[in-house]
Design brief:
The complex is a heterodimer of chains A (113) and B (113).
Chain A: E1 3-5, E2 10-14, E3 19-21, E4 24-26, E5 32-39, E6 46-52, E7 60-61, E8 64-69, E9 74-79, E10 88-96, E11 101-103, E12 107-112
Parallel strand pairs in A: 2-12
Antiparallel strand pairs in A: 1-4, 3-9, 5-6, 5-10, 7-8, 8-9, 10-11, 10-12
Chain B: E1 4-6, E2 10-13, E3 19-25, E4 31-38, E5 42-51, E6 54-57, E7 64-70, E8 73-78, E9 87-94, E10 103-104, E11 108-112
Parallel strand pairs in B: 2-11
Antiparallel strand pairs in B: 1-3, 3-8, 4-5, 4-9, 5-6, 7-8, 9-10, 9-11
Classes of the chains: A mainly beta (113), B mainly beta (113).
Chain lengths: 113, 113
């Protein structure tokens, strides 16, 4: 079974600074997908970024980028130029092809003005 | 825009009642999921369905059942609600295949008294 581990329950960052959220996972599969989802206080889950395991290049979406280390089974999210609107819970998730989506426990990120 | 709609945002039910949580998606997604979200535990998968009338147990199926009679609708049923089923319930849907982003509903906060 796949497991996703987010060991930090919460983090805080000053506005405009950079923060990295860590995630590790465990799987014996070689073909899978990794995701970071954001859940703001409104509760609506929003996809932040996605990485296909077969791609070596790290995914980037504007201020959000990942550091995907397949051998180490690590998938961290870097948020650059943090904004107040980035305050939310962030969930790391794993999905193998044609199967269920497994989430970590999440991390609460607070951006300080 | 993809839309995943859950029938209620807040729900209060009595112990022993049969409870139905409905979820409808408008993107012809094959996969549909029901998750339960509790503080410190992240999102835990209850059931998922990859096709009409098909279902698979997730990590915590006990006390729940599901129904998928039409592709766009996935119902979660609490056969006899108990106080330990008080939680946030999230429905999600996705395509099968390379575009595997999951889209979420707004969540149902269920309180069992």
């Amino acid at each position: 079974a796949q497991t996703v581990t987010q060991s930090q329950p919460e983090m805080s960052v000053q506005e405009a600074e950079t923060v990295t959220l860590s995630c590790t996972y465990d799987t014996s599969e070689s073909n899978y997908y990794l995701f970071w989802y954001k859940q703001p206080p409104s509760r609506q889950m929003i996809l932040v970024i996605r990485q296909e395991a077969y791609k070596q290049q790290n995914a980037t979406e504007n201020r959000f980028s990942v550091n995907f280390q397949k051998a180490a089974k690590s998938f961290s999210l870097k948020i650059s130029d943090s904004q107040l609107g980035d305050t939310a819970m962030y969930f790391c998730a794993f999905m193998k092809l044609h199967s269920k989506l497994t989430f970590g426990k999440g991390i609460t990120l607070s951006v300080r003005p | 825009d993809v839309k995943v709609t859950q029938s209620s945002r807040y729900l209060v039910k009595r112990t022993g009642e049969k409870v139905f949580l409905e979820c409808v998606q408008d993107m012809d997604h094959e996969n549909m999921f029901w998750y339960r979200q509790d503080p410190g535990l992240g999102l835990r998968l209850i059931y998922f369905s990859y096709d009409v009338k098909m279902k698979e147990k997730g990590d915590i199926p006990e006390g729940y059942s599901v129904s998928r009679e039409k592709k766009e609708r996935f119902s979660l049923i609490l056969e006899s609600a108990s106080t330990n089923q008080t939680s946030m319930y999230l429905c999600a849907s996705s395509f099968v295949g390379v575009n595997t982003e999951a889209f979420f509903g707004q969540g149902t906060r269920l309180t069992v008294v």
